[in-house]
């Protein structure tokens, strides 16, 4: 591929409002699609929860396993977005759609393999989480009944990535919202109407996921046909997808490891800190959706501009998306810090836990602008196809965080103070390490690889 020394095709327009509309036009629908999936899980929890505590506990274990598997496969979306955006920016519409089709084939093959594996290892996986008896039985039932939906969910990831690369975030939003609504109705019918219990919830969710995957796959296939791309899997394209996706998988593993380490530390800080951490982590996750939506916009816009060999536009987009990220982080952080005490009342009446939540949310709120910087830069480098660098520094940032987290576990007091120190370590030290490593990369030129 050509490097940044190539002449730009078209400079960024002088009107900042045009760029802002592009960012918001991609980010707002992307946020809606991101929120739809957690709402689907919440709906399952509400429906199954009425069956009893045992069923709800089983759902919690099984859904944790499934969400982890799907989360690790998010590289299907990221890698496809970058590849399609580059081809599209270079004016190669057929090549862009071929990359999308190859992504679908990779997702389908991986999804079938994971579904078959889940069916076989379900009892062992549930047991590994420490479950036994009736809870383990319910978890296995849900895991096996919902496993057939994994190919559909992975197709959703790959197709969504392809459409994002084409700067279409509205279609995934429509599909996600429709799927969430249908899921509620279908699960109620199967769980209560048909009397299938927790199996009905798993089967209903799997059916909806397969339907969503098929819907989005049809959209990509139609686009491929109209562009003259082949619908057959290109071996080179699938292999390229694996190569691009593997570093992003390693990056995701390092992030998951940091999150799991944080939970482990919270557990050692006592029940008050652990209960408070559950709420703070949920708030952090919700805010992360908003910042991740901006990162998705950055992926698509940066990838397209690099494909067009338009380096001035890339630099201008980088500056503007960073301004949006830091600004959004500041606004969200201020709101998070301000509503902590009142928000905590919705989760607990224990004054000690409420105090711990309030203080920890103030800490995270102060540090949220830095998180906005990190999320956007992560999206920029993913859009540039710089996965190998992100994988390498993922290990570096994890290594920087581990001793700090261990120090909190060893020396921080239990209760609210310990939770505050823990979130200062995660939202401060860990995110600072990510901010520095991604910021240094963005200041240089090595990631500015242009062309398709």
From TrEMBL:
Primary residence: membrane
GO cellular component terms listed in the entry, alphabetical order: plasma membrane
Subcellular location: Membrane
Transmembrane segments: 59-84, 104-126, 146-166, 173-192, 198-221, 253-276, 282-309, 321-343, 355-377, 389-412, 418-436
Keyword Transmembrane attached: yes
Pfam family for this entry, one: MatE
GO molecular function, a single term: xenobiotic transmembrane transporter activity
Keywords for the protein's UniProt record, in alphabetical order: Membrane, Transmembrane, Transmembrane helix
Topology of the protein relative to the lipid bilayer: Multi-pass membrane protein
Keyword GTP-binding: no
UniProt signal peptide: none
Recorded family membership: Belongs to the multi antimicrobial extrusion (MATE) (TC 2.A.66.1) family.
Record protein name field: MATE family efflux transporter
Organism: Cellulomonas triticagri
């Amino acid at each position: 591929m050509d490097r940044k020394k190539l002449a730009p095709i078209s400079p960024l327009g002088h009107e900042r409002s045009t760029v802002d509309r592009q960012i918001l036009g991609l980010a707002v629908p992307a946020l809606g699609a991101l929120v739809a999936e957690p709402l689907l899980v919440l709906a399952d929890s509400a429906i199954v929860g009425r069956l009893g505590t045992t069923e709800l506990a089983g759902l919690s274990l099984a859904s944790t396993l499934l969400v982890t598997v799907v989360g690790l496969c998010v590289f299907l979306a990221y890698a496809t977005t970058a590849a399609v955006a580059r081809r599209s920016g270079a004016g190669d519409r057929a090549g862009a759609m071929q990359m999308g089709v190859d992504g679908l084939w990779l997702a389908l093959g991986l999804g079938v393999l994971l579904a078959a594996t889940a069916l076989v290892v379900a009892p062992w996986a549930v047991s590994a989480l420490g479950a036994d008896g009736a809870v383990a039985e319910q978890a296995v039932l849900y895991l096996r009944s919902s496993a057939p939906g994994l190919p559909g969910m992975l197709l959703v990831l790959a197709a969504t990535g392809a459409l994002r690369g084409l700067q279409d975030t509205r279609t995934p939003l429509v599909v996600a919202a429709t799927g969430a609504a249908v899921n509620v109705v279908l699960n109620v019918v199967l769980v209560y109407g048909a009397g299938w219990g927790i199996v009905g919830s798993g089967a209903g969710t799997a059916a909806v996921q397969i339907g969503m995957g098929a819907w989005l796959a049809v959209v990509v296939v139609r686009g491929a046909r109209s562009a003259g791309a082949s619908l057959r899997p290109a071996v080179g394209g699938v292999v390229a997808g694996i190569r691009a996706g593997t570093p992003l998988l390693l990056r995701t593993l390092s992030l998951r490891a940091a999150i799991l380490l944080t939970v482990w530390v919270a557990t050692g800080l006592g029940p008050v800190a652990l209960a408070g951490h559950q709420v703070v982590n949920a708030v952090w996750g919700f805010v992360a959706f908003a910042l991740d939506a901006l990162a998705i916009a950055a992926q698509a816009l940066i990838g397209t501009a690099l494909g067009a060999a338009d380096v001035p536009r890339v630099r201008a987009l980088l500056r503007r998306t960073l301004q949006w990220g830091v600004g959004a982080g500041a606004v969200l952080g201020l709101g998070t810090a301000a509503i902590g005490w009142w928000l905590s009342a919705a989760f607990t009446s224990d004054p000690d836990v409420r105090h711990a939540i309030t203080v920890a949310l103030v800490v995270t709120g102060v540090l949220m602008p830095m998180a906005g910087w990190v999320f956007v830069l992560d999206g920029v480098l993913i859009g540039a196809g710089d996965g190998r660098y992100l994988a390498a520094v993922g290990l570096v940032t994890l290594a920087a965080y581990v001793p700090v987290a261990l120090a909190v576990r060893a020396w921080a007091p239990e209760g609210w103070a310990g939770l505050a120190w823990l979130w200062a370590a995660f939202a401060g030290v860990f995110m600072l390490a990510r901010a520095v490593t991604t910021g240094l990369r963005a200041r240089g030129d090595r990631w500015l690889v242009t062309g398709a």
